[in-house]
Amino acid sequence: MTGREILHKMKEKVGLGSSACDTGKGKSKMSKHVTLGYHLVKGKSSHPMEDYVVAEFKQVEDNELGLFAIFDGHLSHDIPDYLRSNLFVNILNEPDFWTETESAVRRAYRTTDTTILDKAVDLGKGGSTAVTAILINCEKLVVANVGDSRAVICKNGVAKQLSVDHEPSKERAYIEDRGGFVSNFPGDVPRVDGQLAVARAFGDKSLKKHLSSEPDVFSEIVDEDTEFIILASDGIWKVMTNEEAVDCIKHIKDAKSAAKHLAEEALTRRSSDDISCIVVKLQ
User: Fold this and answer.
1) Predicted local distance difference test score (pLDDT) of residue 14
2) Using CA atoms, how far apart are residues 282 and 31, in angstroms rounded to an integer?
3) Distance between CA atoms of 50 and 74, rounded to whole angstroms?
4) What count of Cα atoms within 13 Å lies in the side-chain half-sphere of residue 280?
5) Angle CA(137)–CA(140)–CA(141) in degrees, nearest 5?
6) Which of 62, 74, 175, 236 has the fewest CB atoms within 10 Å, i.e. is most exposed?
């Protein structure tokens, strides 16, 4: 077995996916009902896969953390790969993580972006969106995001979005106040300075004066009505609504099978982008 193959097996074991078509699963040690599955499919573009995933359960002293993330790169696979390796480490290293989790997440997002910008010579000029979810002792869910990767939970069969799609048209005032502009030309969607179709992201040093990396952060108590969580890149959300995604998999008990089915449904609907999704079953 080559070094590359060994590394891939190690990543697969702890729930880190990044190949052209990658899939995996895991389960909580704290609750036998809580399981995860993920699935990635490379899109039709000629560049390498730019979606990266974290999906794992981690023991921290007497606590269990479910760590889930989708990192969707643009003009870069190095930056989402860097985020996969470093963002959760930075979050958990914040001294007030256990007492002020939401503040710790915001601070870690900022410091991670600063480091990425400082390493632009090595990491390149591109960037990445992110959606992260931390499940604390199977009781509390803390979601943060920049960009258009999305987190959705299903409660009593109904979809509820826990992230914000950071679209340039919605943040035009912020962008213009910082000297930028929003234009649909070239292309068919609003873009920051006519280039980037999201208003918040990690990296993108050339656009950073007009681009925020400040996450939106939400907390949700996981109760008996909370059935499952979906995290996915826009390869899913370009072709499916939140409710369609929930309806697509709510009858599937196995989290890995649910994630794969969701990705396959997006392909059936002719999604051409990189597709990555994580499903966390809570019942």
Assistant:
1) 41
2) 9
3) 7
4) 31
5) 110
6) 62
Return the percent helix, strand and coil in the chain, to nearest 5: 30, 35, 35
Give the Cα separation of 279 and 274 in Å (integer). 17
Query: Is 190 strand, coil or helix?
Result: coil
Instruction: Write down the pLDDT at residue 274.
Output: 84
Q: What is the DSSP string of 59-122?
A: EETTEEEEEEEEEEEES-SHHHHHHHHHHHHHHHHSTTTTTSHHHHHHHHHHHHHHHHHHTHHH
Assign 231 to helix, strand or coil.
strand
d(CA 208, CA 27): 38
Q: At what angle do helices 255-268 and 242-249 cross, to 10 degrees?
A: 130
State phi, psi for 149 to the nearest 5 degrees: -70, 150
**Amino acid 283: pLDDT:** 86
Specify the pLDDT at position 45. Answer: 66
CB-side exposure of 61: number of CA atoms within 13 Å? 3
3-state secondary structure labels for all residues of 156-182: CCEEEECCCCCCCCCCHHHHHHCCCCE
Of the candidates 235, 271, 260, the one whose C-alpha atom is nearest the C-alpha of residue 36 is 260
Count the neighbouring beta carbons within 10 Å of the beta carbon of residue 232. 28
- Residue 263: strand, helix, or coil: helix
pLDDT under 70: residue ranges of the chain: 1-21, 45-48, 186
Which residues lie closer than 8 Å to 65 by C-beta, 6 or more apart?
57, 58, 59, 92, 134, 135, 136
User: How far is 92 from 101, CA to CA, in rounded Å?
Assistant: 9
Sequence-distant (≥ 6) Cβ neighbours of residue 15 within 8 angstroms: 24, 26, 36, 38, 53, 54, 55, 56
